[in-house]
Amino acid sequence: MSKRCAWVTKEPLYIDYHDREWGVPVYDDRKLFEMLCLEGAQAGLSWWTILQKRENYRKAFDHFEAEKIVKYTDEKLQLLIEDKGIVRNKLKIKSVVTNAKAFLNIREQYGSFAQYIWGFVDHEPIINQWTSEKEVPAFNALSDQMSKQLKKAGFSFVGSTICYSYMQAVGMINDHTIECFCHPSHQRQESSTSL
Fold this sequence. Notes:
Largest sheet: 2 strands, parallel
Mean pLDDT: 94
Helix content: 40-55%
Number of helices: 10
Structural class: mainly alpha
Oligomer: single chain
Number of strands: 2
CATH architecture: Orthogonal Bundle
């Protein structure tokens, strides 16, 4: 049986997220924006809570199309606050609108959000070599820098821990432990044995 990172539970949804998404580089602007908003929604909660509600979030927030979100009215925000399918936190909900505006500004400035956000890692994923989950940090100097820059650009719910978690989720940082079959070293071994 393939070994996975120690944090993965037996929940099929969690296994699927770990195996197919976590640590896989994302370059699609809409997906990068969605993940930033979901990581913000996670603040003070577990990722499992958000993952279970992800489909509800997509429906509630127009599949994270920033152009639609920036036009949300007070009535629409009120409906979101009453939506039991998402985390009903007024500040977190409003932050998605704030972040949509900042996201569109960045996209205009840099041509794409991916171009901007991947610049923090020089457009190359950082592959870590952790032997145990205990070694994986909650934040680092890079996430501190990203947090500062995003706040300056007008984003909210982008503290250093959220930024680090975001970088892991969108594959800017690969924090699969080395024994995990998703660690890039195993992919290299597989491709060399199949030659």
